[in-house]
Design a protein that fits this description.
It contains 4 helices and 12 strands, in the order βββββββαβββαβαβα. The protein has helices at about 105-110, 175-190, 210-215, 240-270; strands at about 1-5, 30-40, 50, 60-65, 70, 75-80, 90-100, 115-125, 130-145, 155-165, 200-205, 230-235. The mean pLDDT is about 85.
């Protein structure tokens, strides 16, 4: 299937296209971005954050010590959050974006910098003696770009969806195992054709470890580190960005398959 992700029916079920519905939806909860960055190992007690703009940087952030001297920093991740209605709960992170020392003005545009988008989600019953898991894998391959009537860039993607059923009873890190499976499958497939595609990998777990995965400082599963050309994004299925929409699609398919499987087991047990 070839289409623009923004032109697809919105996953909320309204019947409208995504860009005419939840992409423009105004939420009542306050939403904001948070920067996660590394700081050079120098002693300081207080720091001042300065937002700046110049000829080379549309918008940037500097960290200054008490004397006004800049402390070297490097932004590694941008997080999107919203304030919950229940003030006793911490703010909800709906997405993260790996960056290289730059601000993100439009999270949706960040995905356009990648040649391919890989979304992986797994559903299973953690209390079952035999853990049958269902993993949905969505691959969006960028084919071409164009400008809409307002001069905004749109991209045409070729989408491929797979649903895998497998026995995860002996697997300790079920989600992480399937992340490595999907990543390695794509890496091997395109390496054989001498093609290196910059790939955004969207997952909905391991939130605290994602920066370490992207920096190749921590393995995703056992001894498997993220290969070159792959970058991990986080997305919940409840946000309003494109990566949230794609995750919701994958999550819905995996949850649906698990539900049907459990219903079939229940039906068989009833017959017995």
């Amino acid at each position: 299937m070839k289409n623009s992700i923004n032109d697809e029916p919105c996953s909320c079920g309204s019947g409208k296209s995504y860009k005419s519905c939840c992409m423009k939806k105004k939420y009542t909860n306050e939403r904001y971005q948070r920067l996660k960055y590394t700081v050079e190992d120098v002693p300081f007690e207080k720091a001042r954050i300065v937002i700046f703009s110049d000829n080379t940087t549309p918008i940037g952030v500097k960290l200054l010590n008490e004397e006004g001297t800049e402390i070297k920093t490097s932004i590694v991740e941008v997080q999107g959050l919203y304030k919950r209605s229940n003030s006793n709960k911490s703010d909800k992170i709906t997405y993260t974006i790996p960056v290289s020392d730059e601000m993100v003005l439009d999270p949706n545009n960040e995905l356009s910098k990648y040649d391919m988008i890989l979304v992986v989600d797994t559903s299973y019953d953690p209390y079952a003696n035999i853990k049958i898991a269902f993993t949905s894998i969505l691959v969006c391959l960028k084919e071409k770009e164009y400008e809409d009537a307002y001069g905004n860039k749109e991209f045409i993607y070729k989408k491929n969806f797979q649903l895998l059923e497998w026995d995860a009873t002996q697997c300790n890190q079920i989600e992480n195992y399937m992340y490595t499976y999907a990543i390695e499958f794509l890496r091997t497939k395109y390496k054989e054709n001498n093609i290196l595609l910059k790939t955004a990998v969207i997952i909905d777990s391991c939130l605290g470890s994602i920066p370490l995965y992207n920096e190749r400082k921590e393995p995703i599963f056992e001894s498997y580190y993220l290969p070159d050309g792959f970058f991990i994004f986080y997305a919940s299925d409840k946000g309003d960005k494109i990566q949230n929409k794609l995750m919701k699609e994958c999550n819905s398919e995996a949850q649906k398959a698990l539900k049907e499987y459990k219903e079939s087991l229940s039906s068989e047990n009833t017959k017995c």
